[in-house]
Amino acid sequence: MNLTELLQRIPTLETSGAMNRKVSGIVFDSRKAVENSLYVALKGTLADGHSFIDSAVEKGAKVIICEFLPENFNPEITYIKVKDSSKTLGQLASNYYGNPSEQLTLVGITGTNGKTSVSTLLFDVFTALGFKCALISTVEYRIAGEVIPSTHTTPDVVTLNQILAKAVYEGCEYAFMEVSSHGIHQNRTEGLHFKVGGFTNITHDHLDYHKTFEEYLKTKKRFFDELPAEAFAITNVDDKNGKIMLQNTRAKKVSYAMKTMADFHGRILEVDFNGMLLNFNGKEFWTTLTGKFNAYNLLLVFAVAVELGFNEEEVLQVISTLKRVHGRFETIKSPSGIYFVVDYAHTPDALENVLDSINEIRTKNERLITVFGCGGDRDHAKRPEMGKIATRKSTLAIITSDNPRNENPADIIKDIEQGVEAQNYSKYTSIPDRKDAIKMAIKFAEPRDIIVVAGKGHENYQEINGEKYHFDDREVIEELLKIMGK
After folding, report:
1. Is residue 112 annotated as involved in ligand binding?
2. Which of 31, 138, 252, 307 is the most exposed place for a label (fewest CB within 10 A)?
3. Could you say which of 96, 129, 153 is where a domain stops?
C-alpha cells in the first residue's frame, strides 16, 4: 500500500524522508521486519521499541513510526513522529487491511466472566439465523466454517485486522469478539469500528496487571466511552458497576437484568442439570444450558440480537437449540451415577456462580466436591477469596494445581488456604498433583454426588516452569473412571 494512503485519518507531528513509498507490511517487533516494511516503535512494559529502530532498518524496514525521532537520521528511511505509537498502530493496521471492521457488524463483549460464552453463543445464534460469521475468543478464532486456535483473549491489533479482513473476504456479515481489559489497555482495539458493546459483569480479577480495582473498572469503561454514537451499549444493570459503563458513552444505552427493571428482563422458572425454563420479556422457552450465570449470558445474547433488528420469537427459537460452550459448565455422568461439572471458573465470582448454580439444583442429599486451584504469576489477592468460597459452598474442597507457571504449587496452595474460615477447616484437603486430586474426588464420591473440576475448562494443558504439558480435565476424568470402575 502507498504510504500516504496508509496514513489517512492519522495525525502526525513531524515527518522526515520520502512519503511516496510502497509499504509491504506493518510490524511492531523489529525481528519480524522485512524489505519495505513499516516498523512501529512501541513503548512496552519490559522494553522500548525505539531501541530497536536500527535493528528493524537492518532487516529492511523503510518507514519508522515513533514518538521521538532518532538522533542519527538515515537518509534512505522515512521517519514519522506521532503522539502515541500504540494508538497509531491500530489505525495503521485498520487502514492497511481496508478497514474491515467497518464492513462487518462487529460486536464486542467485555466483563470479567461470560465473555467467551456470550461471544460463542452469539456466533452460534447468528450462524443458525443463516449468516456467515466470525468469532474471536479465548478458545478459538472461527471464520465461517474454519477454526483457528487462539493465542490471546484479544489478539494484537495487526492480527485482529488480518482476521477481520479474511472474514470480509469469506463473505462474513457479523463478527463477535471478546474484549479483554488487557486488550483495551494496550490499544489492541484501536481503529476498530464496533456496532455493539456488551457488558457481562465486573469482579475481582487481573489485579496483577491493573494493580487496583478502580483501574480495572476504568479500563473496561473506556471500551464504552469510545463507542461511536450509532452503536449500541448493552449493560447488565444487576451488576452494581453496570451503569458506570454507560456514564460517558455516546452510544444508544440499553439495559438487561433479572432482578431490576430493564429493557430486557429475564426470569428463571425451572432449573436442573438438564437445562432451564426461562422467561425473557414475557416469553417462555427451554434451554439445555443451566445455571443463573448462563441465564444472564443468554439474556445478553437475546438483547444483542433484538437490538440488531431480529424478531424476539425468532431469536428465542434459535436460543432454545443452543448447546453448551466447550469447557463452560460441561457435564459428564459416570456409569455409577456421579455427576461431573468441568468449568473454566478461575475467578472468585465465577467459582461462586458455578457452586451457587449447583446448590440451587441439588436436593442436599448429594454431596458437592470441588477440585480447584489458582494460576501462578497472576493476581494473588483472589487466592484466599477462592479458598473461602470453595470451602463455604462445598461438602469437600480439594485444593490443587491449576497452571502454576513459574511459582511453586505449594506456595499457591498456602495462599488459597489463608482464606479458609476456621469452621471449614475440616471441609478441605490439598493435593498438589491435579490428576491425584481428581482421583481423590472420584474415590470419595458416591452415586448422585457432584464433582466440580474448576479453573481450566477448555484448556488441554498445564503450564509448569515455562513449559506446557498436555492435561485435559475431561480426558483425565474419563480415564480415571475406567480405571476405578465408577
Report:
1. yes
2. 31
3. 96
